[in-house]
Amino acid sequence: MNDDRRRNTILELGRIREPLHATGFGLGALLAGVHLWLGTETGLTTFYVVGAVYVAGLAVYLTTYWRPVGYLVAIVHTLALGVVWLLGGRAFFDVGVATGVLALSFVVVSGYLFAADSGLTAAAHGP
C-alpha cells in the first residue's frame, strides 16, 4: 500500500498484531460479549448499553483516533461497573464473578498498555 493511501484510512490495525495488545482486545471483546449476552438473557437495556460501550471502545481502538488516554477511560469504566455490581446486590453472582476475573485481567493489561504507550515503562525507554 502506498503512503498516500495509508494516510487516507482511519484504520490502524498494526497494534493488534502485538500479543499484549491482542490480549487486551480479546478481553475487551469478551467483556462486550458477556454484557450483550446478559442483555439478551434478562432483557435489561443496561446490559446492552454496557456491551455497546465496550464495542465502541474496541472500534475506536482499531482507528488512528486512539490515544493512550483511551486505556484510562476503559479502566475507569470497567472499575466503575465492578463497583456498581458490588453495591447493587451482586446480581447474577456466578456470571458476575467470572466477569470480574475478566475485568480485572482487562484492567491490568490496559494499565500496562497505557504505561507502555505513554513511555512510562522501562521497556519504552530502551537499554
From TrEMBL:
Residue intervals passing through the bilayer: 20-38, 44-62, 69-89, 95-115
Transmembrane helix is among the record's keywords: yes
Keyword tags: Membrane, Transmembrane, Transmembrane helix
Protein name per UniProt: Uncharacterized protein
